[in-house]
Amino acid sequence: MFDHKIIVTGPVGAGKSTAIRTYSTSQVVETDILASDQTQTMKEATTVAMDYGTIVLDAETKVHLYGTPGQERFDFMWEILSKGSRGVIIVLNASARNPLQDLRFYLHAFADVLDRVPLVIGVNKISMEQRESDFIEKLQQAAIDFGSDADVLAVDIRKRKDMNKLVKRILFSDKLFAK
Ligand SMILES: Nc1nc2c(ncn2[C@@H]2O[C@H](COP(=O)(O)OP(=O)(O)O)[C@@H](O)[C@H]2O)c(=O)[nH]1
Ligand SMILES: [Mg+2]
């Protein structure tokens, strides 16, 4: 059995905790508490330390999902969570004010890790208008400009088949354990 540690990151409200909750088959560890600051207006609870869940995909593959806290004041946790990771999933909230800026922020925040491991970008909460526009292409271009060949996929993170697609992109990536 091989253990694969995958980081799930992205802004507050993107759907990271939802992703880990819907996909994991183990008991999920969540450390959400009542938000005490500006995130309170967005939702009642926010992840302060991390989310954690696991899934056994086949006899050889166990995936450990680690959700990072979304707020910048917890960014000291990101480096800890990133140690020994096999890949990074950036979840974006397409209905946020500036998803493109969010993407750039997370690409830079995880630049060191992304040098070594594959990345996939899941665009959650996407509208019909965005689907029919060049929204995804613009995000794809931002990834390319950053130097990443990551796929950008529109997802409904509440559906396990969509989350499965993101996880499989990481596991089947060529960028295998590159140092
Ligand atoms: N409309 C819609 N809401 C979603 C979707 N995914 C998550 N949510 C909701 O968005 C809120 C934030 O999700 P959460 O997983 O806590 O985000 P996190 O801050 O990234 O962990 C929750 O109330 C979810 O129920 C989605 O695909 N569509
Ligand atoms: Mg969360």
UniProtKB/TrEMBL annotation:
InterPro entries the record matches: Gliding_Motility_GTPase, Gpn, P-loop_NTPase
Signal peptide position in this chain?
none
Q: Which UniProt keywords apply?
A: GTP-binding, Hydrolase, Nucleotide-binding
- Any Pfam family: ATP_bind_1
- UniProt keyword annotation of DNA-binding present: no
Write down the PANTHER family for this protein, in alphabetical order. ATP/GTP-BINDING PROTEIN-RELATED, GLIDING MOTILITY PROTEIN MGLA
Entry similarity comment: Belongs to the GPN-loop GTPase family.
Protein name (database record): ATP/GTP-binding protein
Please name the source species: Vitreoscilla stercoraria
